[in-house]
């Protein structure tokens, strides 16, 4: 990808009736069931749902790491059957090569493709500049903070010139302050390159801040419970959190997620302790008379 590239016309992901069943030691898990969703070229889409609902499974299907047991998955009309550099993944766990410095990490995919040294150094430096890491190109991963490692991961993914970026809870291990900064870095990068993004999180405000659309998933087996457009103005910045519509969408998503989180822990009958009858129980029923 040239660093000044504009909106892409490819990177159209379509899942139709996708189900994934895992069988492990005769134990069968239906991870996701009948999922149909779409990511348009250049769109930022988030999967939001409780732990274990199948978010990573769907991302792995799109990456080409996991084959669906039912349904179809295509990119630009072509079935996805294996991983490809046009769909790059950034995981929550920092997956940098510890024996390579920052620039060499970013160059890695280009080296695998046989790009000449000078060209790949130039590309790596450009993406390190964009992610604010120019001063650290000779550092090794162990010398970096978590937020810096994830920025290297994003720079490394982008250097491969992907049409689709897949991010699986990339900021999940970061402290709250670093997380907010990285959200801004990511939205700025997306605004600039406009590649298709599938982002996974269970953080509602992160999903709203970043996305064009959010798919809310049900508890296992994961299905699409709701599709929520995020019509907040772009480009987004710190002030976006203060927009009138933000709180409204947040409440809506919180309600949807709460239902599923309760279902996921089998606790749909959790009593509401604000209820007067619970605060002042009926004396007859508590004495067992
Ligand atoms: P999420 O990312 O939403 O937390 P996952 O996609 O990781 O959820 O997992 C969904 C369900 O599928 C879970 O019950 C998980 O244990 C199961 N699962 C995921 N991957 C495998 C696998 N490779 N083998 C067996 N079960 C799996
Ligand atoms: Mg996951």
Please provide a written account of the structure:
By secondary structure, the chain is an alpha/beta fold. The chain folds into two domains: 186 residues, Rossmann fold, CATH 3.40.50; 75 residues, no CATH class. Helices cover 36% and strands 22% of the residues. The protein has nine helices and ten strands. It has a six-stranded mixed beta sheet, with helices on both faces. Helix 2 runs parallel beside helix 4 and helix 3 packs across helix 4. The chain is globular, with a radius of gyration of 22 Å. The N terminus and C terminus are likely disordered. The protein binds adenosine-5'-diphosphate and magnesium ion (MG). Magnesium ion binds next to helix 1.
Helix content: 25-40%
Provide the number of structural domains: 2
CATH class of the largest domain: Alpha Beta
Strand order of the largest sheet: 6-7-8-3-9-10
First and last CA, distance: 76 Å
Hetero groups bound? Answer: adenosine-5'-diphosphate, magnesium ion
Q: Report the total helices.
A: 9
Question: What is the fourth-level CATH superfamily of the largest domain?
Answer: P-loop containing nucleotide triphosphate hydrolases
Low-confidence parts lasting 5 or more residues at pLDDT below 50?
Answer: 2-7, 285-289
- CATH topology title of the largest domain: Rossmann fold
The proportion of residues in beta strands is 15-25%
What would the average pLDDT be, to the nearest integer?
A: 91
> What's the CATH architecture name of the largest domain?
3-Layer(aba) Sandwich
Helices and strands, in order, run as: EEEHEEEHHHEHEHEEHHH
């Amino acid at each position: 990808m040239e660093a000044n590239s504009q909106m892409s016309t490819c990177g159209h992901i379509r899942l139709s009736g996708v189900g994934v069943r895992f069988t492990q030691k005769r134990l069968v898990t239906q991870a996701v069931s009948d999922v149909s969703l779409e990511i348009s070229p250049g769109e930022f889409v988030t999967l939001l749902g409780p732990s274990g609902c199948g978010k990573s499974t769907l991302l792995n299907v799109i990456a080409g790491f996991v084959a669906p047991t039912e349904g179809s998955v295509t990119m630009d009309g072509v079935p996805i059957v294996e991983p490809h550099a046009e769909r790059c993944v950034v995981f929550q766990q920092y997956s940098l090569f510890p024996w390579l410095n920052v620039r060499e990490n970013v160059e890695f995919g280009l080296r695998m493709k046989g790009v000449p040294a000078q060209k790949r150094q130039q590309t790596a430096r450009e993406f390190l500049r964009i992610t604010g890491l120019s001063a650290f190109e000779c550092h090794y991963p162990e010398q970096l903070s978590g937020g810096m490692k994830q920025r290297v991961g994003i720079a490394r993914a982008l250097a491969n010139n992907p049409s689709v970026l897949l991010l699986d809870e990339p900021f999940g291990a970061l402290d709250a302050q670093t997380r907010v900064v990285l959200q801004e870095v990511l939205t700025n990068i997306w605004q600039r390159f406009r590649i298709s993004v599938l982002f996974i999180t269970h953080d509602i405000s992160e999903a709203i801040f970043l996305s064009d659309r959010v798919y809310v998933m049900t508890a296992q087996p994961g299905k699409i419970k709701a599709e929520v457009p995020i019509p907040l103005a772009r480009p987004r910045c710190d002030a976006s959190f203060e927009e009138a519509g933000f709180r409204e969408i947040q409440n809506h998503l919180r309600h949807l997620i709460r239902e599923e989180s309760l279902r996921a822990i089998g606790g749909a009958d959790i009593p509401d302790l604000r209820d007067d009858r619970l605060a002042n129980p009926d004396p007859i029923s508590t004495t067992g008379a």
